[in-house]
Specification:
The chain has about 350 residues and is an alpha/beta fold. It has 2 domains: about 140 residues, Rossmann fold (3-Layer(aba) Sandwich), CATH 3.40.50; about 160 residues, Lactate dehydrogenase/glycoside hydrolase, family 4, C-terminal (L-2-Hydroxyisocaproate Dehydrogenase, Chain A, domain 2), CATH 3.90.110. The chain contains 11 helices and 11 strands. Bound molecules: 1,4-dihydronicotinamide adenine dinucleotide and oxaloacetate ion. 1,4-dihydronicotinamide adenine dinucleotide (NAI) binds next to helix 5. Pfam families: Ldh_1_C (PF02866), Ldh_1_N (PF00056). One of its GO terms (cellular component) is mitochondrion.
Length: about 350
Amino acid sequence: MKITMLKSAGAALKKATTASPSPCVSTHLLSRAYYSTGYPERKVAILGAAGGIGQPLSLLMKLNPFVSSLSLYDIANTPGVAADVSHINSPAQVTGYVGEEQLGKALEGSDLVIIPAGVPRKPGMTRDDLFNINAGIVKSLCVAIAKYCPNALVNMISNPVNSTVPIAAEVFKKAGTRDERKLFGVTTLDVIRAKTFYAGKAKVPVADIDVPVIGGHAGITILPLFSQAAPKANLPDDDIMALTKRTQDGGTEVVEAKAGKGSATLSMAYAGAVFADACIKGLNGVPAIVECSFVESSVTELPFFASQVKLGKDGVEQVFGLGPLSEFEKQGLENLKPELKASIQKGIKFANQN
Ligand SMILES: NC(=O)C1=CN([C@@H]2O[C@H](COP(=O)(O)OP(=O)(O)OC[C@H]3O[C@@H](n4cnc5c(N)ncnc54)[C@H](O)[C@@H]3O)[C@@H](O)[C@H]2O)C=CC1
Ligand SMILES: O=C([O-])CC(=O)C(=O)O
């Protein structure tokens, strides 16, 4: 009896292995069902696509099921990056553009432009030390955006974000294309760090955590609101102070660990992809999409400020207020205002002088 069973099991095995493989065997990272139809075609352009952030961000946007066209622009090396990413069997059609003369084509028809172009920090530098190089890069890219895709949403990653976003706003104002709903400083990495660090300290599952982060994107201008963390863990004040400092210094932690080889690229690409996905979902009419971002704002007396925003069919649909703050956070808010104000003014001045 035993022998018979073994024999028939062997026969079944033989039968299974000689049959052709199922046509459903998936070579998709995302399930095929996720590539749902019925959403509008969306073109996304990445400016600085061959860089440390640009390359993994290009990969992640190629995997985004809502992207139909992916335009990769840089001043060098984009043909290789585009050829590489284009072999992935997801729907987005990938095109590489290189050099200023191809920038217009890269941008034309874009619904969303993501900008990680510019130099990163080395140990000992502040984000503001990048201003002299990155301000000019961002300005010229925004002049082209105003010309070739004036209605696109713009996700600004290039540092110093506290100044590059005001530069972009001024460029768009001068070009007559400014729409305060469409310009975003990407502060998602601050939120991702706050969630990760909080979950570690509170010993709660990281996937369940939400922590708003307000202010700007540099040092003390980054203000995580752990008093509003959900779920609430009732951590002692010392822990909250340490978590706040670690979130504010998160970028520096990576810069120092990379020891001269740049700043956060992989976590930033992830953060950039999360925020871009939220923007596209908003454009597509998916309800209740809320993320923190550095936007034109009347939440405080400063003209730009990061807080939670609701994303809709035209970009920002609603900028949310700050909610109740702890005494520690109220103090943090007052402390950050002078630095954030100065960085905003520096950007506005640069855009109007040069
Ligand atoms: N918002 C945030 O949370 C974060 C922002 N960053 C910032 O992102 C920027 C990029 O960082 P990485 O990718 O690490 O730098 P990277 O040096 O690796 O890459 C930058 C890319 O920009 C390109 N580029 C330079 N000038 C350009 C132009 N005129 N047009 C198009 N592309 C141009 C370069 O060729 C390069 O490929 C930096 O300013 C960095 O500080 C970095 C991490 C987080
Ligand atoms: O720290 C930097 O220079 C890059 C950055 O903005 C971040 O990692 O948050």
